[in-house]
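Our preliminary data section would be incomplete without showing what the modeling component actually yields. Below, a chain of 395 amino acids is followed by its predicted structure, encoded as tokens that our downstream tools consume directly.
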Amino acid sequence: MLFNYLRKPNPKNLLGSPDAFRYFEYAMFCMGWQSPATYKILYYITSSLLFAWCAVYLPIGIIISCKKDINTFTPNELLTVLQLFFNSLGMPFKVIFFNVYISGFYKAKKLMSEMDKRCTTLEERVEVHRCVVSCNKAYLIYQFIYTAYTISTFLSAALSGKLPWRIYNPFVDWRASRSSFWNAALNETALMLFAVTQSLMSDIYPLIYGLILRVHIKLLRLRVEKLCTEPGKSDAENEQDLIKCIKDHKLIIEYAAAIRPAISRTIFIQFLLIGICLGLSMINLLFFSDIWTGLATVAYINGLMVQTFPFCFVCDLLKTDCELLVSAIFHSNWIHSSRSYKSTLIYFLKSSQKSIAFTAGSVFPISTRSNIKVAKLAFSVVTFVNQLNLDDRLT
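Predicted structure:
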């Protein structure tokens, strides 16, 4: 059932952490990122053609179209094509980075299952279930936002009798007849639906990783707070509980290390492009758009914002979660414990003081502050265009 992974918690049938990628894995199969058990050769050929269509033909088609028809572009069409061009340049790299580090994806799923084994109480398993449902909802929300941009751009262009993205098509001359126009427009729209789906998959998986990481840090903190609170347990049993918490923390660190390489490079590419694309979109929206193209541009800006901001915000929350974990360890009930327990606790406290952090290309930290700094470039571009009166010159 399509919405089975959005269901409410049922104590007899709860979802596990790996189920957070259920819809993502459906898309992986459709986009050629995950091979089936049979017909592998046919699948690899199809996926290669699909990647070539979305990642190679798209930017080349835009370049050819600009070279052939640059004199006929309106400012609105030119900016729409440019913002698509820059995004299409980054998409292949993001897809390649994920597939190069796909072993980290499968390792992370395995570690999720290991972390779920420590969720022995019903409350912990329900907490994991709710997080998994949130991850699957996030994927569907991303799918809606990206598809809304594609469909709205197609409709706004179709209503005005122009191609949505003016991508070069060697087989169809869209000016020849009405049927040729619709053939070219539908071909562009199909191409963009596949391209934006690949792009959204590259944008959503860091967020899912981060949400799962947060819930397991939270559950570990709750376990730490319960240490030495059961009166019937001996010092040896309490120390064993503490050692289990240390092992849980090591699993979390290992999980973060497994997902870090792909996330670092993907977010770096996004940070490089978001300022340029957002600036072009805002110029288009403020100076050249009518009501229909304005709606399509707003949908595109929404897609740009969800590329980086949600995960950057999650990274800030992860830092807070790590600080709360350290505080929980220090304020746990250890005063009347044995010397061996205290020594083990000190080791745990020291190892947990280093926050789990991610960097974009090992250059700057992934955080809301970094995201805002990158987005400020868009406002600088708009101010520059406004001061030089470039909008009138473009017109």
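Strands lie at 359-360, 364-365. The chain has a mean pLDDT of 87. Preliminary results of this kind motivate Aim 1 of the renewal.
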